[in-house]
């Protein structure tokens, strides 16, 4: 997908959606101070270009019973990334995995209901013929949760001739 440059109005719409997730589009447009058609067109463009990937609820995995989390670095066999991708996707406890540079090849974020359940996930990972070595670091607490708005705000292009009244 082509890189999308967001302007201050786009960011204001995203911020309003984040702060008022149950509001309808008419209400979001009112909060931001634009016409509903403008808000609709902007949000549809951000969906079409992949900037907005969903409107589902955010889930706190700790509150849902998966309070043990870890980051696992995998060193994998040469050329085994596709196989590792399939294996990781089949493990429900893998929240996300990223191919990386440096000593490890893949960094995984893992969640489990207990230390024993985490150990089972680690054993499953180490049984993979594609995994040469793994290193685990248990997360004690979340210092900065997943967020995007500060980054988007910091790099937003000036609005398209319109100064949103939001914020």
Q: What would you say this structure looks like, in words?
A:
The chain has 167 residues and is of the alpha+beta class. The chain has two domains: 8-57 and 148-155, Winged helix-like DNA-binding domain superfamily/Winged helix DNA-binding domain (Arc Repressor Mutant, subunit A); 68-139, Alpha-Beta Plaits (2-Layer Sandwich). 37% of the residues lie in helices and 19% in strands. The chain has helices at residues 8-19, 25-32, 36-48, 81-89, 115-126, 149-155; strands at residues 68-76, 94-99, 106-112, 131-139. A four-stranded antiparallel β-sheet has the order 2-3-1-4. A hairpin with a 6-residue loop joins β2 and β3 (106-112). It is elongated, with a radius of gyration of 20 Å. The two termini are 30 Å apart. It holds the Pfam family HTH_AsnC-type. GO terms for molecular function: sequence-specific DNA binding. Residues 6-67 form the HTH asnC-type domain.
Which properties best describe this structure?
four-stranded antiparallel β-sheet; 37% helix; elongated; 6 helices; Alpha-Beta Plaits; 167 residues; Arc Repressor Mutant, subunit A; 2 domains
Oligomer: single chain
Shape: elongated
What is the string of SSEs from the N terminus onward? Answer: HHHEHEEHEH
CATH superfamily of the largest domain: Lrp/AsnC effector binding domain/regulation of amino acid metabolism (RAM) domain
Number of folding domains? 2
Based on DSSP secondary structure assignment, what is the total number of beta strands?
4
InterPro entries: AsnC-type_HTH_dom (IPR000485), Dimeric_a/b-barrel (IPR011008), Tscrpt_reg_AsnC-like (IPR019888), Tscrpt_reg_AsnC/Lrp_C (IPR019887), WH-like_DNA-bd_sf (IPR036388), WH_DNA-bd_sf (IPR036390)
Protein name: Transcriptional regulator, AsnC family
Organism: Blastococcus saxobsidens (strain DD2)
GO molecular function: sequence-specific DNA binding
């Amino acid at each position: 997908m082509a890189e999308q440059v967001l302007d201050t109005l786009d960011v204001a719409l995203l911020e309003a959606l984040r702060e008022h997730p149950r509001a309808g589009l008419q209400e979001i447009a009112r909060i931001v101070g634009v016409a509903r058609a403008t808000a609709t067109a902007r949000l549809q463009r951000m969906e079409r270009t992949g900037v907005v990937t969903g409107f589902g609820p955010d889930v706190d995995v700790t509150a849902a019973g998966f309070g043990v989390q870890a980051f696992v670095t995998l060193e994998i066999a040469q050329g085994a990334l596709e196989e590792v991708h399939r294996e990781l996707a089949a493990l429900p406890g893998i929240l996300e995995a990223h191919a990386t540079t440096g000593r490890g090849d893949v960094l995984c974020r893992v969640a489990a209901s207990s230390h024993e359940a985490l150990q089972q996930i680690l054993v499953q990972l180490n049984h993979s013929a594609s995994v040469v070595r793994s290193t685990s670091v248990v997360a004690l607490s979340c210092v900065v949760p997943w967020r995007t708005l500060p980054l988007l705000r910091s790099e937003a292009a000036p609005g398209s001739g319109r100064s949103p009244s939001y914020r």
